[in-house]
Amino acid sequence: MMEYENFKAQIEFDAEDNIFRGEVINTRDVIGFSGRSVEELQAAFRQAVERYLEWCRNRELPANDLYTGRVAVRISRDVHRSLAVAAQREGKPLNTWIAERLSEAVLGARP
User: Fold this and answer.
1) How many CB atoms lie within 10 A of CB 87?
2) What is the DSSP string of 2-42?
3) Model confidence, pTM
4) In which band, very low, low, confident or very high, does the pLDDT at 70 lie, cut at 50, 70 and 90?
5) Which of 62, 58, 66, 60 has the alpha carbon at shortest distance from 24?
6) CB 94: neighbour CB atoms within 10 A?
7) Distance between CA atoms of 105 and 88, rounded to whole angstroms?
8) CA distances from 14 to 19, 20, 39, 40, 92 (A)
9) Calpha distance 103→43 (Å, rounded)
């Protein structure tokens, strides 16, 4: 995984062509890049992001507004009930409790 300007890219190695290929994964647009070395790949990633940001600026479009802060998740009634009880035990609204647990899972600490 690579990161630049809040964009994250997934990297794969194509053994047949002997090249690294990357794709930005946290945007609704397709941004790809490649390189034969790590240094070349990093430079190509930065250049691809910079070109994308310029393209967005020229069109007065938001560059990366995928995340609204809202997530809809379907779970069983039993899990929903258990989550609600756990939140109540801590005296917190269910949304707050879930947001804290998700933050712990991905960030490793309570917000």
Assistant:
1) 18
2) EEETTEEEEEEEETTTTEEEEEE-SSSS--EEEESSHHHHH
3) 0.64
4) confident
5) 66
6) 14
7) 20
8) 5, 6, 16, 15, 49
9) 31
**d(C-alpha 4, C-alpha 47), whole Å:** 10
4, two tokens = 């630049």
The domain ranges of the chain are 2-58, 77-107
Give the Cα separation of 107 and 3 in Å (integer).
16
| The residue to which tokens 């707050």 are assigned | 96
Q: Which two tokens stand for residue 12?
A: 């794969």
How far is residue 100's CA from residue 109's CA, in Å, rounded to a whole number?
A: 9
In the numeric block, the tokens 């804290």 are attached to 100
